[in-house]
Write a structure and sequence with these properties.
Elements: H1 5-10, H2 12-23, H3 37-47, E1 52-55, H4 68-85, E2 89-92, H5 116-120, E3 123-128, E4 138-146, E5 162-168, E6 173-176
Parallel strand pairs: 1-2
Antiparallel strand pairs: 3-4, 4-5, 5-6
Length: 179
């Protein structure tokens, strides 16, 4: 929406109207701490989405495993199958403690994963940040995995690209960083 939370909450009715106008009602936000595998599958059957984005995919309920890494691996296998059945799936997850203060995150920095999460992903984008003075609002994007070949206009050298951006945390946006 391009506004801060206080601006958004100052007039929720107007914000909802503007959101629905901009999205034409095509973006469904489901915000629940108890979302399960079966909930997601029901939503997919009902809405027939063009894209699915999970904020904190690791928290989806309904998966079992003898160990946490196996449980998490089953979530990512399921998400891949969901993508094959319905549409592209983007799963957001955390980096682990080794990522703290690191500029370019790699697949090694994915939280609670040695290989399972990485194996199921077609691409992985790490968002790094350093503690260097003057760079508090700079983030470093790194496509550490990219199995997607692109099209005729794609530049193979950029498949695993790195780019710096400016974060606007008050409105949840990134801007191009011009040095």
């Amino acid at each position: 929406m391009g506004c801060t939370l206080p601006e958004l909450f100052a007039n929720r009715t107007r914000a909802n109207t503007e959101y629905n106008t901009k999205t034409k009602g095509k973006i469904k936000l489901i915000d629940s701490a108890t979302t399960s595998k079966s909930d997601v599958e029901s939503y997919c059957k009902k809405y027939k989405p063009s894209a699915i984005i999970f904020d904190q995919i690791d928290k989806i309920k309904g998966f079992l495993g003898d160990r946490e890494d196996l449980r998490l691996g089953s979530i990512y296998i399921w998400a891949r199958e969901l993508a094959k059945t319905y549409c592209p799936v983007i799963g957001v997850t955390q980096a682990d403690g080794t990522a703290e203060g690191k500029k370019w995150l790699t697949m090694e920095n994915v939280s609670n994963a040695k290989t399972a999460k990485q194996a199921e992903a077609d691409w992985i984008l790490g968002i790094g940040a350093t503690h260097q003075d003057g760079f508090e609002f700079i983030r470093h994007l790194h496509a550490s995995k990219n199995k997607l070949m692109g099209d005729m206009d794609s530049k193979p050298a950029l498949r695993h690209g790195k780019v710096d951006v400016i974060i606007q945390p008050d409105i949840a946006r990134y801007l191009d960083y011009k040095r």
